[in-house]
Design goal:
The protein contains 13 helices and 9 strands. The protein has about 300 residues and is α/β, with parallel strands linked by helices. The protein folds into 2 domains: about 160 residues, 3-Layer(aba) Sandwich (Rossmann fold); about 120 residues, N-(1-d-carboxylethyl)-l-norvaline Dehydrogenase, domain 2 (Orthogonal Bundle), CATH 1.10.1040.10. Helix 12 crosses helix 13. The chain starts with 5 loop residues before the first strand and ends in a 14-residue tail after the last helix.
């Protein structure tokens, strides 16, 4: 009987925690590390070994998963002072599930390959709900061989799709984030118009379900906007990170994307007003400010 793979998991925040727990529940031997230790310590109840030093996660790892919040954070751990790629054993697999620039993923893939390490960039979409329910959309870039090596692990966290060579997963995620940002802003504008025009936003949302305007964002995020529930599933500061990255990449291939530019400006303003740690559905608060309306936590209750 083949021994279960040993997986090192780096980054156990809002998304990483349930993802790592699913892997542990699937029978993998897991070692986890997080910059804020108590966020990783919660995994001990699921049989995960929580380590104090990040280098410890690679010593016995067949697979290393990185779920940190940004490209610089990933590079610091994988290629910088921590040097985890250099510490990984040849033949191991590195899966970077963070949302990072396309160019960063391509560079990491080259460095991993030089050391005999298979590389997959596999960012995700679906938010905290998708991570908790193991229904994440997973966009994977890398060689077909590396993808097949990674696929059984990825399937424990969601629905993986191989979209092309290294960097392609991150490109697919940028496309996803463009659509999410634009749609969230449109849904927020629509609810605000419904409210100001005298309709009940909740009833308008209900009426639109099943029509051409229906979407996961209308079903989930519109409810947050109506209820004023902006506890972060996908914090706005991560949304603007991704929209800004998408704009820079678009410029690098000669494209100007006016709708994305506008959404990016709205989310940037949201951060400037101190709402960066709110869920990105909190963009409706920024639209209220833009229209010089009271910023509300619900359709009827104003907040400072």
């Amino acid at each position: 009987m083949t021994a279960p793979l040993t997986i090192g998991f780096i980054g156990t925040g809002i998304m990483g925690f349930p993802m790592a727990r699913h892997l542990a529940q699937a029978g993998y031997r897991l070692q986890a590390w997080n910059r804020t230790p108590h966020k990783a310590q919660r995994l001990a109840a699921s049989g995960v070994t929580v380590v104090a030093e990040v280098q410890e996660v690679v010593r016995a790892a067949d697979v290393l998963i990185c779920m940190l919040s940004s490209g610089p954070s990933c590079d610091e751990v994988l290629l910088g002072e921590q040097g985890l790629i250099a510490a990984m054993r040849p033949g191991a697999l590195l899966i970077v599930m963070s949302s990072i620039p396309v160019e960063t993923a391509r560079h990491q893939a080259v460095q991993a390959t030089l050391r005999g390490i298979a590389y997959i960039d596999a960012p995700v979409s679906g938010g905290e709900k998708g991570a908790t329910e193991a229904t994440l959309a997973i966009m994977a870039g890398g060689t077909p061989q590396a993808y097949e090596q990674a696929r059984p692990v990825l399937e424990k966290m969601g629905r993986p799709t191989h979209v092309g060579p290294a960097g392609s997963g991150e490109l697919a995620k940028l496309v996803n984030q463009m659509m999410v940002a634009n749609t969230i802003a449109s849904v927020a504008e629509a609810l605000l118009l419904a409210e100001r025009g005298g309709a009940d936003p909740a009833k308008v949302r209900e009426a639109l379900l099943g029509g051409f305007a229906d979407s996961t964002i209308l079903r989930q995020h519109a409810l947050r906007m109506i209820a004023g529930d902006f506890a972060p599933g996908g914090p706005a500061r991560y949304q603007v990170k991704d929209t800004s990255t998408a704009i820079r990449f678009a410029h690098s291939v000669g494209l100007d994307l006016p709708m994305l530019n506008q959404a990016d400006q709205l989310f940037a303003a949201m951060l400037e007003h101190g709402d960066g740690d709110l869920d990105h559905s909190g963009i409706i608060r920024e639209l209220r400010r833009h229209n010089q309306l009271a910023v509300c936590v619900s359709s009827t209750a104003a907040v400072p």
